[in-house]
Amino acid sequence: MALATLVIVLPLSFVLRHKPEQYDMLPDGQRTEPPTANDTPSSVNPAQAEIGGRGALRSRTFWHLALAGICLVTVVMSVMTHIVPYLTSVGLDRSLAGVIASAIPVVSILGRLSFGWLADRHGSKTFAVIAFGMMSAGGILLAFNTNLYSWVLVVFVLLFGIGFGASVVLRVSLLRESFASARFGTILGIAEAIAMVGGLIGPPLAGWVFDEFGSYQYMWYAVAGLTLAALVLMKTMPLETRTT
Question: Out of 14, 74, 133, 203, which residue is the most buried by the measure of CB atoms under 10 Å away?
Fold first, then answer.
């Protein structure tokens, strides 16, 4: 990993472009000519453009996204940490269990690309609800897959992987849409710091469930429940609709 970082990531960092203004360009959707009388109002007003971390913390929208982030990270860290021990505990070969674990982040690329494209055209909120619903269905399948049906594992990887990739992208997209601010880096940092609480909760909780009950089944029910809670948070989240 260190070698790959030095060989791939470090050289790329020198050619990474920053703000489009540095290249005499404008961000997507903006234009150089002045607006006409027939133009529709902007969806972001000057007051919203100046919102910072404290302003975001007073927003119900922010907390819906932050709490959904905790649910997401709890679930993802639990599954990715314990999926191999779980599959081997129910009789699956360890090497095949490793392949299944590796397939989840690979499949998540499909969710990131496809749901990102769909959200750009039809709105992020609806597809965030769908993404968390897919993850919840994947958790239920994992809980009921006690006899290692191969088709169930395939469907689980597709549902959970695509939903996982999509939810990561769409949560950040919704943050950006709701808090289009010069302080967005601060707002995103706060939201991600809150979400990382899930990383402290998920893996130890899954391990405790296995130690106490001799099975991960109850944890997979919890995975389904947490992603369902995130779905409700997305569904009931108020959208920032301030206009000039």
Answer: 74
Is the residue at 31 inside a domain? no
**CATH number of the CATH domain containing 148:** 1.20.1250.20
pLDDT in tens, 29-52: 566 565 555 554 444 444 445 667
Helical ranges in the chain per DSSP H: 2-4, 10-13, 46-49, 53-57, 60-89, 94-122, 124-144, 150-178, 184-195, 197-213, 217-235
Q: Alpha carbon of 116 to those of 19, 51, 124, 154, 174: distances in Å?
A: 21, 25, 8, 23, 11
Is 54 inside any structural domain? no
Instruction: Tell whether pTM > 0.85.
Output: no
Closest listed residue to residue 61, CA positions, set 243, 181, 237: 237
